[in-house]
Amino acid sequence: MYCPFCDESSSKVIDSRDSGDGIRRRRECLACARRFTTYERVQMRALMVVKRDERREEFVRDKLWASVTKACAKRPLPLGSIEKALEEIESDLSDSGRAEITSKDIGELVMDRLKVMDRVAYIRYASVYRDFRDIESFKQEIEALIENREPGDGVPENQLSLLEDETPPIRRRRRRGRRPKRPQANPA
Ligand SMILES: [Zn+2]
Q1: Residues 107 and 58 in one domain
Q2: How far apart are CA 62 and CA 158, in angstroms?
Q3: Which end of the chain is more exposed for a tag (fewer CB within 10 A), N or C?
Q4: Quick check: pTM over 0.70?
């Protein structure tokens, strides 16, 4: 960070405050003692998401939040846990320092967290975002979750019936089937 007045590279921070979408820092140059302001933002705006059809789209934080909060809708999650998970996902994304990430990789990051948070939210999210190749692999995911269920953890017997309200994976497959064929890029 160079002083805009004298180009000195050392400065001290004399004030720092969070302004909502970034951190504003008031600095004082160690050489000329003049003061200037810097603004620190997470690198998110520059992150590009590579879609399944290879199109690039700028990462939109609100979209990620919308998809995750939708998956978690009406689930008995502790207050703040969705926000915490999302913030962890976002910091994973920015820590990676990558300019591009595939939508599939973002989906995996989300699913890793939802899997331990709430299995219904996980299945809901996975049914929309995971590239389930067929109904059988989707069924295996659900069965794996049921098998891992610990006794007495309070999940109602009918939890999977919630899935009926969600996007059916079969319909998704048909829609996707109209897309041009391309090499299999997503191992199960
Ligand atoms: Zn200076």
Answers
A1: yes
A2: 31
A3: C
A4: no
